[in-house]
Amino acid sequence: MATLDTDTAWKLILNASNRSNVTLPLPGTSQPALRINGKSWELVHQATEDARNLISLFLPLCQPIKRPAGNHVIGQLGQSLDGRIATVTGCSRFINGDDGITHLHRIRALCDAVVVGAGTAATDNPRLTVRRANGPNPVRVVIDRHNRVPRSHHLFTDNAAPTLHLIAGEYDSTRKPASIGQVTTIPCLGAEDDPTPVPPERILQVLQDQGLRKIFIEGGGVTVSSFLKAGLLDRLHVMVAPMIIGSGRPAFSLPEIDQLDDALRPQAQLVNLGSDMLFDLAFERRWN
């Protein structure tokens, strides 16, 4: 019997998306390979350690959302050993290695939407598509209250996937948003001169109204931290690269605490991706 490798494991994961209480066959055969029962799973086929790790990391993202108004939110940060996501000038390409980038693309493939803040979108000019793994592209979402992201950037010009451009304005869920090509602009972030941060709950509500429920908060650090601070992350993947920058932008921006008893202590598993070490942190906010 051939050993199940990472490529085959990824095919099983894609087949498991939004399914539960099912036995999945080895792709191209009728031979059982993976049993899923609620949140638990069992491999019934010989597999490499890397394949098992892949299934362990991604099956939690595949489970269906049962509550009509529910969602599932995963955040991601790629950082150096000393907790930096960019230099003082904003340079962040590429802190994480090839394996970390492939992992990032796999998360995108399992989510309905991938969200970035305006700073990340303007500085990195990302595509936010799935190119290093099989799977569908998510809807791309940029939080851009001040219209900072140049209209020449990939998100607005490449037509590779739908893009939601969230801008300043009062939100009206009954109003059909304006679209040009694959780009839909939704006023929903309040007054442009409002100094208070946009509530993450509002972002999730807008996405829910668009039928988007599995949400990937990809960056940057301020955006991910705002969802973490609000208690809205179910899981957080932190990829740590073997690099010491020494100064620069921190990964997390959270309120100060006085006692370690007040620190966040999520359930964690540590996986060696090859180029990076991954901390898979489970907050399990409201899975169903």
From TrEMBL:
Pfam families linked: RibD_C
Pathway: Cofactor biosynthesis; riboflavin biosynthesis
Single Gene Ontology BP annotation: riboflavin biosynthetic process
Record lineage: Bacteria, Pseudomonadati, Pseudomonadota, Gammaproteobacteria, Pseudomonadales
GO MF annotation terms: 5-amino-6-(5-phosphoribosylamino)uracil reductase activity
Protein name as annotated: Deaminase
Keyword terms of this UniProt record: NADP, Oxidoreductase
Top-level taxonomic group: Bacteria
